[in-house]
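Readers of this paper often ask what the protein records in our data store actually look like. The remainder of this section carries one protein's record, kept here as part of the documentation.

:::
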Amino acid sequence: MKLDGKVAIITGTASGIGRAAAHLFAAEGARVVAADLNPDGHTVTREITERGGQASFVEGDVSDPAVVTRLVETATRTYGKLDVLYNNAAVAPLGRDGMVTNIEDDDWDYVLRVNLKSVFLCCKHALPAIAENGGGAVVNTASIVAFLGHIGQDAYTASKGAIVALTRALAVEYAPQKIRVNVICPGVVRTGITELMWSDMVPAELRQGIERAHLTRLGEPDDIARAALFLASDDAAFVTGSVFMIDGGFSANAPINAVLAGVNQF
């Protein structure tokens, strides 16, 4: 098993990619400490334990320093160490983002707090614990929009671009402590939020164009979870400071930018 004996914190585990990662990491031998603002995260850890795995759940907002402190302490006190941090939690809030000229200040702060401050706090508190254990891995989550111009989600785009830059800085700073830090940039993945956007906000012609722009298909939560598993495991021992576009070829398919550029509300 790829994570046998390792202890892993995963944020945003109540649904979608985080839920898939929690199950996958546990199946690969990790003792999982899951975190989510949504109490449904209890269901995920219960499912893991019912299948013979080990998991704990911390309910709370990981942009709150007190919650993050409790999260890391749960890992180290319950399981004796910390090997892996997977920063997955994020928001792409419907109706609370936009272009810089029309987004409300409070909405900008909300997106940056949840998406970026949470990564800062989790790294701040988890990195010393990982270093004390002799090293390990951090996997951050950005997005392909960190590299593609994206219309109408300026706060989200800014937060994800900052995560890429922070990842590279941490990889350099913590290499002496034998901590690898990498970042995943997912494309369009079928989650509850995506399906809601698809049904209520995205015109049918744009939706079809985005689907065609993928060189393979739209992503599934397991696709991203498996990339995170690789980076968290010793299979990626020679990988740090790297950016992984896990997007079915979306970012390589340049015509999609023309499609997006013609739609002002996406």
